[in-house]
Amino acid sequence: MKNLRDFTYNELQEDLSKNGISQKFRSEQVYRWLHQHHVSQYDQMCNIPHSVKNNLKENYHLGNFSTEEVKISEDGTLKFLFGLNDREVVETVWIPAKKRRTLCISSQVGCAMGCRFCSSGAMGLVRNLSAGEIVNQLSEVLKHPDVDKITHIVFMGIGEPLQNLRQVMRAVDTITHEKAFGISASRITISTVGLVPAIKRLASYPYNVKLAVSLHSSFQDKRESIMPMAEHFSLTELMKACDFYTAKTGKTITFEYIMLKGINDTQDNIVKLAALLRKRRCKVNLIPFNETPDSPYEPSSSSTLQRFQKGLESKGVSVTLRTPRGRDIVAACGQLRHISQQNKAV
Q1: Half-sphere exposure of 161 toward its Cβ, with a 13 Å CA cutoff?
Q2: pLDDT, tens digit, 9 for 90 and up, residues 276-319
Q3: Are the CB atoms for 319 and 313 separated by under 8 Å?
Q4: Distance (Å, whole) CA 133 – CA 88
Q5: Main-chain phi, psi angles of 137, to 5 degrees
Q6: How many alpha carbons fall within 13 Å on the CB side of residue 313?
């Protein structure tokens, strides 16, 4: 049985027609019920005839999640642990700020990238999420009484989005559709550890989403020690792919840089990073490290963060410093799922 949320708008019309629901307005009604009213039962679709509802029940399921846990931070951040139909779990984080409401969503169950600062890959990759499972994270979060809206989407939750590119972009189709969530592609950011061929493929899609690249060091050997995947693509190859993406889409790329004490936060790193990026259309997002119990790393001090930021800016690099959110609710990527899986194993 197919997940009804997996379909894009055009796909839904086609598939419903194959199953005897040929009126275009019916497929539009169903689509709106799924992605604007966030229904969890067919009987909630009050303007759909019983015969059509019965048809839907016979041929499709709604891909509902169970909410396993919701953690509420003192800063207003909400972290959700959702249970999937196969009893796997994924995380989603809602981050409120003055002018925006950002949702950080997952694209995979687990992760194969093995970044040594991140909890997501601690148990490896289990599987990709379907487009419907990605999209349903928005619907489930919007049901929470403390959530007023979602203005921005970042694919920075569990998983490597570009390793699941087709499903991610089908989800983007629904997220941006005016008859669904209607969030502009300019407010969607897809993050990657730097899968060079997939960055080039992403540039061919018509949505022109923003791209964030996990850099974390401008020295190849250091980057490989932090991110084992970096062994497969040199910094030269990665920069060429990023230049291609910028030229193709006109988008400024964000380079994510987690500050690790004594690893990538010294003066030579400032000089090397500035040389790599200052002539490119980009910005650097400096991220304070959210320390985890099993991590081999320590966070850089506040004074080091400020020195690093000023050092880059003095060399002509645009820099932002991320404000940590949800630290009291293990809001860093993969932490809550990792704890949940550990508890199951006990």
Answers
A1: 29
A2: 999 999 999 999 998 877 788 999 999 999 999 999 999 999 99
A3: yes
A4: 12
A5: -60, -40
A6: 11
Concerning whether 333 is annotated as a catalytic residue, the answer is yes
Residue 91 appears among annotated catalytic residues:
yes
Interatomic CA distance for residues 344 and 338, integer angstroms:
10
Confidence of residue 346 (pLDDT cuts 50, 70, 90): very low
Which one of 3.30.420.40, 2.40.400.10, 1.10.150.530, 1.10.8.100 gives the CATH number of domain 2-61?
1.10.150.530
Exactly one of 58, 91, 115, 291 is catalytic; name it.
91
Q: What sign does the dihedral 129-135-136-137 (CA atoms) show?
A: positive
* Catalytic hit among 104, 118, 242, 333: 333
Which CATH number is associated with domain 66-345?
Answer: 3.20.20.70
What is d(CA 274, CA 319) in angstroms, rounded to the nearest whole number?
11
Q: CB–CB of 257/286 below 8 Å?
A: yes
Q: Tell me how far CA of residue 343 lies from CA of 69, 230, 337, in angstroms.
A: 13, 32, 10
In whole angstroms, give the CA distance from residue 210 to residue 153: 10
